[in-house]
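Researcher: Here's a chain I'd like modeled. Treat it as a single chain, no partners, no ligands.
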Amino acid sequence: MNGAVVWLKHALVSLLLGLIALPVHAESPSESDSQVAGEAATAMSWLKRLGPALNMTSYRGVFVYARGDQVHSMQIAHRYRDNQVEERLVMQDGGSGEIVRKGMTVVCVLPDRGHIRLDEIIPSGPFAEAFTSQLMPFGDWYYPQLEGEDRVAGYDVVTIALRARDEDRYSHRLWLEKDTGLLVKSHVRDANGDVLEHFQFTSLQITDDIADEELQVQTQGREITRTLSAGDPQQSSVSRMNGWTLNWQPEGFVPAAAPRSSKGKAVAFSDGLAAFSVFVEPVGLLKMPTGASRVGATTIYLREMSVAERPFLVAVVGEIPPRTARKVADAVEIDDVLALELSGR
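Model: Modeled as a single isolated chain. Structure tokens:
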């Protein structure tokens, strides 16, 4: 497993993880805090609209996604009709390819880059965030604040700041379209306020007039089709952790998906906004440098460990600070039985 493959796996897993907005669980405010509390409540009322808007708003457009010095552009057509989500994402640079979703069926075509496993991956929404029914106390981990109003891609928006309550996660800023609550721009920021990643629509049309032809696979190449299960992702994740243990994780991060790892085990965790994945695999023939690397807000931390006299690689990938990723990797323990099973003995 190399760093690029690990990052790609996590990026696809992120398609499944939802942005859940629940009332803030906070102490009763004093009179001097009433204005802050009121702003937080207003911000949370906007955030409650975000999850449903990602699925239930129909639109077409082009968005850019930048992490570090890497900038990518994608075209999207998204339609919600008859209680079903249909979506087509087309890469505009970095190689041709597309992902098409119709309900629980996903087709991936990547002729220039090989194929991708689609296990438990649900593409939905321009920021790759699919609303789920998993309940998370979102307000426990971020301070929400209504920042003001703006315009993005020709639409009036409100700006919401979400400041991390601890050093184990990043802060975020979201721009939501006023009429629908659709996410049209976002920033991921570190403790110094520097922007590590940003997403933004450069063109957008919110409309119910999305033709069937716009949602058909049009790229030539190998197609991989998968019908996704609507089962409980958290239950699936727990079953995938049999044989290894994570003795520490940042507060609020819970199992949210179980991506398939070709040679080992993998579980994704989310706090309702950010996500990281943990991969446990036997070390391959290619020796990988251990330690942390970061692209934008995405950290890749690799740790090699020996279990039952067999070398294993622990990879932590996600939108968490390098220090947090290292603490997660150091907290992984692998049972001898699983080690022998994964190493082929």
